[in-house]
């Protein structure tokens, strides 16, 4: 895991966009299938939401595998959705998912003690009645800090699933290597996330200026959110490939990511 220049984050984003342009319909279908299945699981009372979090690594492997197939010039089929659910790897991916669940519960606990419960009541009231919510500045700062910690935690775990799947690492070892790969390349990930957010925010601003604050604008922005989620997933594959190498089950690539 050699040290990478910060500009690499921008290159990952460009490479991810290149992968997405090859098969946008297939990747979009894959995203919606993941979302629908996750919503269905989360709808189960009590355990559903926790099970959905545990299955995040299995769902994420569908995108990683799809990006590998696109790089190799193969067509992405709906069967890719089952990539992370096949035995025996599904058990190890679920163990990684338990780590995701532990981090999620820890962040929920931090939020519970760091943010006044009245903050959420004010935000909900503002959503119903409009106007400016009366919230403490400390709560706003706490929410930004917690959001930053959430993003950092997700980034630190982003390579754990592919390391478990492709490198046959145990869950603990995969999380260890993922964490330190991200820490060593922290400036790369910062550039990646800043560029990703800046482009998203800029496009949303242009859409709002052109269409105003109409229902059509909300629909367009919702589609942009889905599009940029896919773009980030593809960029994560580009990052994994550069740091850990192209997965062994690849074959001869037809789409070059080195340009």
Overview of the molecule:
The protein is globular and about 50 Å long. By secondary structure, it is mainly alpha-helical. It has helices at residues 8-22, 24-42, 48-54, 56-71, 89-114, 117-129, 137-156, 160-166, 171-184, 186-211, 215-244. Helix content is 75%, strand content 0%. It has 11 helices and no strands. The protein has one domain (8-244). The protein starts with 7 loop residues before the first helix and ends in a 15-residue tail after the last helix. Mean pLDDT is 86; it is low at 250-255.
Q: Work out the helix count.
A: 11
- Unreliable spans are 250-255
Q: What is the average per-residue confidence, as pLDDT, rounded to a whole number?
A: 86
Which structural class fits the helix and strand makeup?
A: mainly alpha
Radius of gyration: 19 Å
Main sheet properties: none
Would you kindly provide a brief summary of this structure?
By secondary structure, this protein is an all-alpha fold. It has helices at residues 8-22, 24-42, 48-54, 56-71, 89-114, 117-129, 137-156, 160-166, 171-184, 186-211, 215-244.
Overview features:
mainly alpha, 259 residues, single chain
Outline the fold blueprint:
Blueprint: H1 8-22, H2 24-42, H3 48-54, H4 56-71, H5 89-114, H6 117-129, H7 137-156, H8 160-166, H9 171-184, H10 186-211, H11 215-244
Helix pairs in contact: 1-10, 1-11, 2-3, 2-4, 4-8, 4-11, 5-7, 5-8, 5-9, 8-9, 10-11
